[in-house]
Design brief:
The protein has two domains: 8-120, no CATH class; 127-339, Aminoglycoside phosphotransferase (APH), C-terminal lobe (Aminoglycoside 3'-phosphotransferase, Chain: A, domain 2), CATH 3.90.1200.10. It is an alpha+beta fold. Strand 2 (41-45) and strand 3 (49-54) form a beta hairpin. Helix 5 (162-180) packs antiparallel against helix 6 (189-206), helix 6 (189-206) packs parallel to helix 11 (321-339) and helix 10 runs antiparallel to helix 11 (321-339). The strands form four sheets. It has a six-stranded antiparallel beta sheet. The chain contains eleven helices and twelve strands.
């Protein structure tokens, strides 16, 4: 369906979003469109398909201010996510300005924007929703473990020096500490300092556990954001929304990534489930990380997630700052729980 006639000069990001809010804009002819806005994109959800529009934003880690950059990013998102959800990511599609001055999605004309087109997954089968409803079955866990074990076994191995691997965590611990103790966040500085101290002490006394992971080529091009809300359960699980925009953030030890998932399951009240997934992977892969390493990974990832959560309160578009401060506190509590155990 075409939009009212316009010219290229008229096509602002607001114009594009307004057009994409209209159900008649889509080839599937949905009865309605739900719209979700995130820091980096607008997501348009129909009953059967999802379209993601990248915002023209610039951050230290990402520059999407040009149309070409958004096209490349959309195509990269499709390519990378097809590793774990091959039939979900349908492609990067253009929003075009036709010769008559109308906007058309996937039509003939000059591309003025690019969107990621996906199949919509059943909300009730996402792992976070299934945890809340108590509907995660044992066969769901087995299928997920099997899918992840195959993925990590086939993932690209990333040669990493012992020095670089350990230094990356040291730098991350300091970056988390420095951000979280900022007075305007209102977080408990003494507890945050204690968490950083415990993690640095682990690096100093038990860092050989990390060194061993690097020496044994355990670092792979992984998912990068393996949270329950990105996992769709089933006989063939689908895992979406990998971290496409910054490769170095995807270069992870699988045990680190699964410790992160286990920590997120714990935050949702399903610690035993997270542990079953992690232990299932260890059995399937034959991996045997050093004692204490999983706890270190969980504490480190929880601090990082606290840092990401608290950033929301300085976003002027977000009104519910209390929610995000509480979320950060939850993560800090999880970090403390695991840091005190080693």
């Amino acid at each position: 369906m075409q939009a009212p006639s316009t010219t290229r000069a008229d096509i602002t990001i607001a114009t594009k979003v307004a057009f994409l809010r209209r159900p008649e804009a889509y080839p599937e002819r949905p009865g309605h469109i739900d719209v979700v806005e995130t820091h980096l994109s607008w997501v348009f959800l129909g009953p059967t398909h999802v379209y993601k529009l990248k915002k023209p934003v610039r951050h230290p880690f990402l520059d999407l201010t040009t149309l070409e950059a958004r096209r490349r990013n959309s195509e990269r998102e499709v390519t990378l996510n097809r590793r774990l959800a091959p039939d979900v990511y349908l492609g990067a599609v253009p929003l075009v300005l036709a010769h008559d001055g109308c906007l058309i999605l996937q039509g003939q004309g000059e591309a003025v924007e690019w969107l990621v087109r996906m199949k919509r997954l059943p909300a009730g089968r996402m792992l976070d929703a299934a945890i809340r409803s108590g509907t995660v079955a044992e066969e769901d866990v087995r299928a997920l473990v099997r899918r992840l074990a195959i993925f990590y076994r086939n993932a690209e191995r990333i040669p990493t020096t012992v020095t670089a691997y350990r230094a990356g965590f040291a730098a991350g611990i300091e970056a988390n500490r420095a951000e979280l103790i900022q007075p305007h966040y209102g977080l408990p500085a003494a507890s945050i300092e204690r968490l950083a101290e415990l993690q640095l002490r682990y690096l100093a006394s038990e860092g050989e556990a990390l060194d061993e992971r690097a020496r044994n080529d355990r670092i792979v091009d992984a998912h990068g954001d393996l949270r329950p809300e990105h996992i769709c359960l089933g006989t063939e699980p689908k895992i979406i929304d990998c971290l496409e925009f910054r490769r170095e953030l995807r270069l992870l030890d699988p045990v680190d990534e699964l410790a992160f998932l286990a920590m997120e399951c714990e935050r949702l009240g399903a610690a035993a489930l997270g542990e079953r997934i992690l232990q299932g992977y260890l059995r399937a892969s034959g991996d045997a990380p050093a004692p204490g390493l999983v706890g270190f990974y969980k504490a480190y990832r929880a601090c990082l997630r606290a840092r990401i959560a608290i950033w929301h309160i300085v976003d002027h578009e977000i009104r519910d700052t209390g929610k995000w401060r509480a979320r950060a506190m939850d993560y800090l509590a999880l970090a403390a729980r695991h840091a005190e155990r080693w």
